[in-house]
Specification:
375 residues, alpha/beta, Rossmann fold, Dihydrodipicolinate Reductase, domain 2, 2 domains, nine-stranded mixed β-sheet, 9 helices, globular
Length: 375
């Protein structure tokens, strides 16, 4: 395939706005259709962003100008919508999680391989200049050999701002499966596959209230743990501690630190495409009267900042250039396996080994510019 890739979006909900803003600005892709279970919602997005065709999901799948389907449906529909897109001969990019169970997700990737189509999976924040710059710094040895990692995401919960938050507390979501993909995709991309996990989960409330939008005041059930703590071991020998919570009065987002033999590095929020990158070196020998203040050495971020949809663009160029794309379905599957194993560990109290693995995740090609026409 050469030239611009025709993109069809299925799902015109909240997340579609940022995808449309970015994808319609990239010269190497062409958003040609939007579909939703509520066609009028698809029409509103199509009118706002100048997309020629709108309708139902079936209309997008039947559109011959659509080469790649962007699946922005709710988690419970991800596998089925992706499966239908593969059956229609389309490449697929799906929002996270790739699926809700290992069996159907594995079958999905196998179907894509058999059909000869590409499969990509969110998050594509790992393609942002913040993460890419940090990854290059680690490869250049600024902190020596990575030893262990720490991550934290804690908030009062999306029910404070989301007009339809119930699905974020349902099976397939919660902080583990909703926010975990950002953190664990970043770590696997940096350090390689995870070998095992142990976890503890808590559900402090069985019911929560909507605080924003037309349904404010309504309640909904909490089906999954709203706070999860995970210990991880990597196949490369590193270890990690991870907090994911929708129950914290203290708002702390995007904490991700890599500690190595020659220093410690702070990375940008893995839910964002840019941010601070800085490291400290070891103090050395500490003697009486010495200051223990450490100098933070800032690393200048390299690359053009965009947003969600960057993974779709990378897929389009990778297809044309016959190279691997970065955020693959295999990466998405391994991260899902890790998160489901953490979920199982929280239920059983056991340390669980991870069966899946993933190949080394590549960096973007040097000089990757989303706004330069390359196809």
């Amino acid at each position: 395939m050469s030239g611009r890739l025709g993109v069809g979006i299925i799902g015109a909900g909240v997340i579609s706005q940022t995808y449309l803003e970015n994808l319609t600005s990239f010269p190497d892709v062409d958003v040609v259709a939007i579909g939703d279970l509520l066609p009028e919602r698809a029409q509103a997005k199509a009118d706002e962003h100048g997309v020629a065709s709108w309708g139902t999901p079936e209309d997008v799948l039947a559109n011959p100008s659509v080469d790649l389907v962007v699946n922005l449906t709710i988690p419970q529909a991800h596998v089925e919508v992706s499966r239908q897109a593969i059956a229609a001969g389309k490449h697929v990019w799906t929002e996270k999680p790739t699926g809700l169970d290992r069996e159907s997700t594995r079958a999905l990737l196998d179907a894509a391989d058999a059909a000869g189509v590409r499969f990509g999976a969110a998050p594509d924040t790992i393609l942002g200049p913040g993460f890419q710059t940090a990854k290059r710094a680690i490869q250049d040895g600024v902190i020596g050999t990575p030893l262990f990692v720490q991550t934290a995401f804690q908030t009062q919960g999306p029910d404070l701002w989301h007009p339809e938050p119930a699905f974020l507390f349902a099976e397939g979501a919660g902080p583990l499966l909703d926010m975990g993909p950002y953190y664990f995709s970043a770590l696997v991309s940096l350090l390689g596959p995870i070998a095992g996990v142990a976890a503890h989960g808590s559900r402090f409330r069985t019911e929560r209230q909507i605080h924003a939008g037309p349904r404010a005041g309504e309640t909904f059930p909490v089906e999954v743990p709203s706070t999860v703590q995970v210990l991880s071991t990597f196949a490369g020998g590193q270890s990690g501690t991870h907090l994911l919570s929708f129950d914290s009065a203290l708002e702390r987002h995007g904490i991700i630190e890599i500690h190595g033999t020659e220093g410690s590095l702070v990375l940008p929020d893995p839910n964002r495409f840019e941010g601070r990158i800085a490291f400290v070196k070891p103090l050395g020998v500490i003697r009486d009267g010495m200051s223990v203040d450490q100098e933070w050495i800032e690393i200048e971020q390299q690359g053009t900042v965009t947003g969600r949809g960057l993974g779709v663009l990378d897929m389009a160029r990778a297809i044309a250039e016959d190279r691997p794309h970065v955020a693959t379905g295999e990466l998405g599957y391994h991260v899902l396996d890790v998160l489901l194993s953490a979920q199982d560990s929280a239920s059983t109290g056991q340390y669980l080994e991870i069966d899946s693995t993933v190949a080394e995740v590549p960096l973007l090609p040097a000089g990757f510019d989303p706004f330069a026409a390359a196809l």
